[in-house]
Amino acid sequence: MSEYTDNLRKSMLELGNSNDYIELCINYARKLEKSHVPIIFDKIHFLVLTELKSSQLNDFLNNRAGYYREFELIINNRKREIHAPNNILKELQKWIQLYILKPLRVSDWATAYIPGTSIIKNAAIHIGQECVVNLDLKNFFNSISAVKVHRVFRVAGYTKELATLFTKICTVNNCLPQGAPTSPYLSNLVCIKLDQELADFCQSLGIRFTRYADDMTFSGGKEIVKVLPQIYKIISKQGFLINNDKTKILNCGQRQEVTGLVVNDKVSVKKEFIRKLSQEIHFCLRFGVSNHILRTGIRKSNYKDHLFGRAYFINMVDKSLGDDLLKKLQSIDWEY
Predict the structure, then answer these.
(1) pLDDT value, residue 90
(2) Same domain for 203 and 92?
(3) Per the structure, how many domains does the chain have?
(4) What is the pTM of this model?
(5) pLDDT band for position 1 (50/70/90)?
(6) Which InterPro entries match (predicted)?
(7) Among 335, 273, 336, residue whose Cα is nearest residue 307
């Protein structure tokens, strides 16, 4: 028995609770301890822990959509609908992320949104394979329903009442909002069963598998292509759809890419990505930043950050080349 449950039993005995009720509460607390999440008995207990007023929570529950700001962003040539929570809701979601979600373990095949992982480590698993297949899960966050999120909190051990409350805090329009701090990690937790089923299937055939958010990669021999229908079936069974326009089958004679990195014989950045950055640095040094922007019609207000961001990305993969590019960027007269 833990110190917490020992103290809980003593307190409840002093209050005159029945032995049956005490055992019920102790067993509930033990279940949550096993999941390494906070022991929370009801909504009032949750309000005490989060220092949130009951009126604030009720206002949110009666107007959940009003606590989000909706806008669109273009990311990697894709239009994304963002639901950004206001400060009150964001702080509440951060609390759930830190204390409830973060202690829960995700699958070994999930490589996004987890400390210590990166697109580089994700790509490295698929180096030097005969065939690489990339699949994209369509409308990933929108495909994760409130029902699936509710199940995450129930599996962690929480009551139906609390699981429902946490689900309402973490979802909007019956799905995960893109823009909430809880959505990325929740997506990994929801996908545990999907990852496990795909991993079991792939391992039986000697196929390597990873999932970086909505990007799934399978690598190995050419037999992967033959078993794609079975892979699609597993994905469909878990409630996800494949974006067929983004499916890529890459053989060893082609440039094989995984999450934007080349993996034919080592993890490397695409040559045209490096060439384009080197060219922009050259023109900035030769003509000056303002003249270069005027000549080319560049409309990025954060142009300096944009170039440095690209150089830091290269630096993560190839430190020597990245250091050289960063040194050149630092030598530019940025005029601001």
Answers:
(1) 98
(2) yes
(3) 3
(4) 0.91
(5) low
(6) DNA/RNA_pol_sf, GrpII_Intron_Splice-Mob/Def, Reverse_transcriptase_msDNA, RT_dom
(7) 273
